[in-house]
Design a protein that fits this description.
single chain; 224 residues; elongated; Helix Hairpins
Length: 224
């Protein structure tokens, strides 16, 4: 009988402790739920606002004039750039909300992981910007090198333009990988060779009588 009483007391004590632990967590759980729900609403609203602002300042039209929209469409990316930026901002804020929620619930391991994700997201954003700028610059250089090479009556005008364009594209891709901290050492070794390729193509295009033509092409591109 005594042993049954002891077991009963143990069970009662255990359930009591569990109950009080649960009750003590209720305020944190309620606050976490409120922060999570409100945070998601705010994140979604900010994402939409950012996309709308990007549309109002004609980001989509600016990207379209560079030819980037057509290039992205070829690889299956059909979303407007403004909408893509809005989605990126929204999901970034979603992760921030998850970090705040995990902190409230004292989920330290999850919080640390999400914080690492949040700190890495800016690298992704910068890499995307690098790729966009690189594509724009490569198209500009392609036109410039081709026009100046034709003016200099070089038979390999198209090839020189393609070499210059793809050299810049590869360099851009490498710069994006460096920003993402992928194969940093190898990319830095290859960087010197790419700089030489770009310099060689540009030097040939501008060196053989194409200076005047280059000035005219630059004026046209700047006016556009």
């Amino acid at each position: 009988m005594s042993s049954l009483t002891d077991w009963g007391e143990v069970l009662t004590t255990s359930f009591t402790e569990i109950w009080f632990d649960f009750v003590s967590l209720v305020p944190s759980i309620l606050i976490a739920i409120i922060v999570f729900v409100v945070g998601l609403i705010i994140a979604k609203s900010v994402g939409k606002l950012f996309a709308t602002v990007a549309q109002r300042i004609y980001v989509d039209k600016a990207i379209e004039t560079t030819g980037l929209k057509g290039i992205l469409a070829k690889v299956g990316f059909k979303m407007e750039i403004s909408d893509a930026l809005g989605e990126l901002i929204k999901w970034f804020l979603y992760v921030v909300v998850l970090v705040a929620t995990a902190d409230i619930l004292n989920l330290n391991q999850i919080s640390e992981f999400l914080q690492a994700v949040v700190l890495y997201i800016p690298n992704v954003i910068i890499s995307v910007v690098i790729l966009i700028v690189g594509i724009i610059v490569s198209n500009f250089i392609h036109t410039l090198v081709k026009e100046t090479s034709v003016a200099a009556k070089l038979s390999a005008a198209e090839m020189l333009a393609d070499v210059a364009k793809w050299a810049i594209m590869i360099f851009t891709f490498m710069a994006a990988l460096i920003q993402l901290r992928v194969a940093t050492s190898l990319i830095q070794i290859l960087f010197t060779g790419l700089v030489f390729m770009v310099s060689l193509a540009g030097g040939i295009a501008f060196g053989f009588g194409g200076k005047d033509r280059a000035a005219k092409v630059l004026d046209k591109l700047i006016k556009k």
